[in-house]
Amino acid sequence: MSDGVKASVRYRTANEGIAILRDTIIFALRLYTMDKRKEGRYSRIYEQLKGLLIKTSNPEARMATICAVLHHKMDDFFWTGFYCLTEGQLIVRTYQGPVACQVLAKDTGVCWAAINQGKTMIVPDVEKFPGHIACDSRSKSEIVVPLCDKNKKIVGVLDVDSDKYETFDEMDALWLGKIVDLIYERS
């Protein structure tokens, strides 16, 4: 290979490296902008809910309001609802979206995992989650946030499904956790 060809290859390789770096930076800036937009939306929803929920201390009414606001203000929320523990069963309560499973099989699926592990579960692809309960085949990703009463005992979960893969992240977990905490907060 001649020196001219070697220089041309090095030049092309350097330019390709610069292009890849540029594309990576642009992608990172887009993600940062999307995160800031999502954080802003959650912040506004949280403040709206705080204002709405002071009208009653009834947990059922608060759950209904939270479901309605989240479902209609968050673009990728395909199913939004609460499952609550009743005599050892996880039973659907208030929700928005397609028809739900009424009772979730004990110790199966994402909702029971969140209860049993006592933590928020983020599932980028529900089909890869062992024991996933498919109430609607259009659901692709899911986040489940434990719901604790005023004594910090887990009494249920907020379950949100998306019809897109990899919808939820740590920002969703943070804000949905704060929102769920409003249910048993004193008004």
Instruction: Give the helix tally.
Output: 4
Sketch the major β-sheet: 6 strands, antiparallel
Shape: elongated
Order of helices and strands: HHEEEHEEEH
Briefly, what CATH class? Alpha Beta
Oligomerization status of the protein chains: single chain
**Domain count:** 1
- The second-level CATH architecture is 2-Layer Sandwich
Spatial ordering of strands, largest sheet = 3-2-1-6-5-4
Which structural class fits the helix and strand makeup? alpha+beta
Overall residue-averaged pLDDT value = 89
What does this structure look like?
By secondary structure, this protein is of the alpha+beta class. It is built from four helices and six strands. It has helices at 3-53, 59-73, 109-117, 170-181; strands at residues 79-86, 89-96, 103-104, 121-123, 141-148, 154-162. Strands 3-2-1-6-5-4 form a six-stranded antiparallel sheet, with helices on both faces. Strand 1 (79-86) and strand 2 (89-96) form a beta hairpin. Helix 1 packs antiparallel against helix 2 and helix 1 (3-53) runs parallel beside helix 4. It is elongated and about 80 Å long.
